[in-house]
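Person: Please comment on this record:
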Amino acid sequence: MDDSPAREPDIAVVIPTRRRETRLAFALEALAEQRLDASRFEVVVVRDGDAAEPLAEPPDGLRVRFLTRPGVAGPTAKRNVGWRATDAPLVAFTDDDCRAHPAWLESLLAAADGDGAFLQGRTEPDPDERHLLHGFARSQEIRGLSGWYETCNMAYPRELLERLGGFDESLPFGGEDTDLAYRALAAGASPTYVDDALVWHAVMHRSLAHAIRDASAWSDMAGVVAKHPELRRALYMGTFWRKSHAALLLAAAGLPLARRHPAVALGAALPYLELRINWRARSARRLARRLATLPGWAAIDSVEVASRLPAAVRNRTLVI
């Protein structure tokens, strides 16, 4: 890490992390390759208090500050620690499982208009790992203003963050980034999509058991929608977090008709089968893979639907 005196940064990158030091090292290496002059930005990494060796070290020439939040917290609290620790007028957020394209920071700064606009960049699965995107693996792909404003690739003026009070720590994991964006909109800020500000998101291999554990994430989205009713525009049919949830419930509704009206039951199941199998796949091997994982995906979607119902009841807001 370069400890020599440096100019105040034009932009800061905040990365919350927990026990993914190898991934974090990849993220820092990508930031060291930015086209933007290293004197114009800094990186703030925030770990939990129980972080243990071996810890990732910054590449030569990259200005990084490693901060620790006492105890164990979700990414929400760590992002607040990070942005409050920098004086940079623009704060970019990404995650420890992401690698920034060399033009990322340069593109964000070029798009910043100084009028309080917040920025969302493009996110794609990591090209070095895209071949792993099968089975129950997950990644992220964003090619426009998503309506969710995921912090894998967002930038906010620091003044706007101060005015809003940062992220809402009552949402420790899931929905806090969406909530922040909609509070920014309510405060009169406007979003801008920056296609050249590209971040590559890791492809995370998951077993079925791991994917089912992940299925309860964002389970309190009904609370965020209750707080920001305009968020329904980002939901499928204004109700469903995923299109697959609507298709699964349609298929389930057809099951009681399977014996007497099999054609009706099959028709009800077709939208879900199309989503999860995609029988138009050119490769017979890919089609066989999709068929093999169909029961697993049905289990994952079922857990996602079920985990959202308590929050929907609690907030009297139908989000499935």
